[in-house]
Design brief:
This protein has 183 residues and is mainly α. The protein has a single domain (33-165), classed as Peroxidase, domain 2 (Orthogonal Bundle). The protein has helices at 14-20, 28-36, 42-49, 59-67, 78-87, 113-119, 126-129, 138-146, 148-163; strands spanning 6-8, 56-58, 99-101, 173-175. It starts with 5 loop residues before the first strand and ends in an 8-residue tail after the last strand.
Length: 183
């Protein structure tokens, strides 16, 4: 990230965040629209989605996908769905506590396994799997699944581009002396 970037003095409120971040059930058209409003194209969006190669999701965000009950349905590998159902019961005492990694193979390593999972129809969220199987950005997903270096280069470019998105008008900003806290 370039130095000297203006940042907000506080976190955005929940209402603003919900309105401006993708939901776990967004389809490809909605994802492209949302990223496009920020000046990011489909390639940027596809590369940035690769951040899901690390991290986990709560059961409430993927339950509908693995049980086939969500409004947005994308092809899902049956054995993958079954393994995720074991972590996320439809009902029971654990509720939404069952977390699952986005990346089946190397959940703690930043690599291109997320894209290989999508090609295998093992995307955890509907919004993940929306990237593959409909033709819109399939070529990018296939390229990133086969070429980790291409993913790394595009991810870095898209991160810089995203980092240059200005905060909303009227929001107090500053150049932070330490990026982890307000001045």
């Amino acid at each position: 990230m370039p130095l000297g970037r203006k940042d907000s003095r506080s976190a955005a409120d929940k209402k603003f965040t919900r309105a401006h971040l993708p939901s776990p059930n967004d389809n490809l058209a909605e994802l492209v629209r949302m990223f496009g409003e920020l000046g990011l194209d489909a390639r940027d969006m596809t590369a940035l989605s690769g951040a899901h190669t690390v991290g986990m999701a709560n059961c409430k965000h993927y339950r509908g996908r693995v049980y086939g009950t969500s409004d947005t349905k994308y092809n899902i590998d049956p054995s993958f769905a079954e393994s995720r159902r074991q972590m996320c019961p439809l009902q029971g005492p654990s509720g939404d506590a069952g977390k699952a990694p986005f990346d089946v193979t190397t959940p703690m390593k930043f690599d291109n396994a997320y894209y290989r999972d999508l090609v295998a129809h093992q995307g955890l969220l509907n919004s993940d799997q929306a990237l593959y199987g409909g033709g819109g950005v399939d070529n990018l997903v296939e390229m990133y699944s086969a070429d980790g270096d291409a993913f790394g280069r595009d991810f870095a470019k898209a991160m810089v581009k995203m980092g240059n998105i200005p905060p909303p008008k009227g929001m107090p900003t500053e150049v932070r002396l330490q990026c982890s806290k307000a001045n």
